[in-house]
Amino acid sequence: MKFAERRITLKDGRTCILRPNGPEYAEEMIAYMEKTAGETEFLLRYPDEVSYTVEKERELLENILEDPYHIMMVAVVDGKPAGNGSVSGIGTKRKIRHRCSLAIALYEEYWGLGIGSAMIDYLSELAAGIGWTQLDLEVVAENERAQALYKKCGFVESGRRHNALLFDDGTYHDEILMYRDLT
Ligand SMILES: CC(C)(COP(=O)(O)OP(=O)(O)OC[C@H]1O[C@@H](n2cnc3c(N)ncnc32)[C@H](O)[C@@H]1OP(=O)(O)O)[C@@H](O)C(=O)NCCC(=O)NCCS
Prior knowledge:
This protein has one domain (6-181): Aminopeptidase, CATH 3.40.630. The chain is α+β, with helices and mostly antiparallel strands. The longest helix is centred in the last third of the chain and has 16 residues, at 115-130. Helices cover 28% and strands 35% of the residues. Strands 1-2-3-4-5-6-8-7 form an 8-stranded mixed sheet, sandwiched between helices. Coenzyme A is lined by residues 40, 42-43, 83, 104-106, 111-117, 139, 143-146, 148-149, 152.
């Protein structure tokens, strides 16, 4: 969906713009998915699992931009994407349509500057505006940085999914379930 740009000042004094992610970022988003997947083990995909073509990615971003129930936010620093965050509905059935789900990842060089907190606050504000009342997420149990950020942003732990992930090295990892009340 489309929404207004927001400017924030980072801990290092630079300006970051939070804006809708659209088709103009297609090429950069493919590079972003590949690089971030290699910088942390805490994302769902491995770099070799990024198989989008630029055309397909452009079409996807265009559709998301026109979808009033899908928020895709890019953080731009010095004119370049530093990371991406998204919120989408869990489903359209009446029993679950009050819930939405959050995903976020930044390039490693932009960690710890306050972008994550600002993105989550803005995404939550937009999600509440759409009418969702609960924001859910899953985070790998060992991902302490992300969990610290989510707790700071008002998320509460609500459960644990046993052996949710199987890494290429043969190790299993649990996921922690968290939610934020948007009412
Ligand atoms: C998780 C992520 C989005 C956080 O974004 P960020 O911009 O670095 O977060 P912020 O700078 O806004 O805040 C980070 C908070 O984490 C905490 N933190 C920072 N470094 C930490 C560390 N090494 N260990 C634990 N907590 C840490 C602090 O509480 C900090 O808040 P503070 O600045 O008020 O002290 C980012 O690190 C990232 O993209 N990681 C890789 C992908 C990922 O793990 N995504 C989440 C998947 S569920």
